[in-house]
Design brief:
Helix content is 42%, strand content 20%. By secondary structure, it is an alpha+beta fold.
Amino acid sequence: MTFWPEMRFERISTDAKIADPAAYGIPPGPAGYSIADLHCVPAVQRHARGIYTESGVALVLSGTFEHLSDSRSCMAVPGSLVFANKRAEFSCRHQGLERNRRIVVFFSEQLLEPLATDLHLDAPRFHTALAPPSRLTPRIAGLLLRIARGAADSDEAAVAIAHICLGASGRFALDKASDLNTRRILEAVRYINAHFAEPCPLDTLAAVANMNRFSFAKRFRAVTGETANQYVINRRLSAAATRLASTRLPIAEIAFEVGFNDLSHFDACFRSAFGCAPRVWRRR
């Protein structure tokens, strides 16, 4: 199960359309953006290097990898947002053999420049390489889904993603964790993504990581930027948003299906993440 439904959209490309593997980016369309569903297979290429030909924001759906860009190194896990600045060099080193999948929206400089001015930025650039899984994840996932579905407000959704991420990207700074602790935490991340609809208590996750509760809680946040509990909640919210948009199942059934046991708690969490009630989200 991923953050994204296993569908294909006409407006989504694959990396087969990127002619030069060292040049990463798909030219924005007439509206100033393009969207792509991109995959990497670690068994084929565990370490990739290149140059971003476009600026963009990627939502990591599956796989884990170390990302280095603009001299900033960080660990990407499902739910992370990866930021690309045009003409910046990057390096990607996969952790494990799970296929890496990202939904990426690329932006033209013409779209980003007025937004940067509005935010009082010196240049239309993202000021960090990555944002960890957070409440920002389901919000951006929802906007990306609207673009991919060809919703009437797709252009507005693209501008919203650019504006949110330009404004937020300077606020994220992750602590470093040892390689051994990182690998242990990533085992817990993989467990959550496979079992998010089930109870994921701290004791269970710490046992998966072969760590004690205190060390696990501290290191999980150091690696992902989020508490384990918030990561689970955000994972459930992203799954719920996808189901609301792609099925006609009752809202209560979706809430229970993704792991919420209390409908009022689900409604409050959803409103906090998406800025609207689940039923309003479904109508968009």
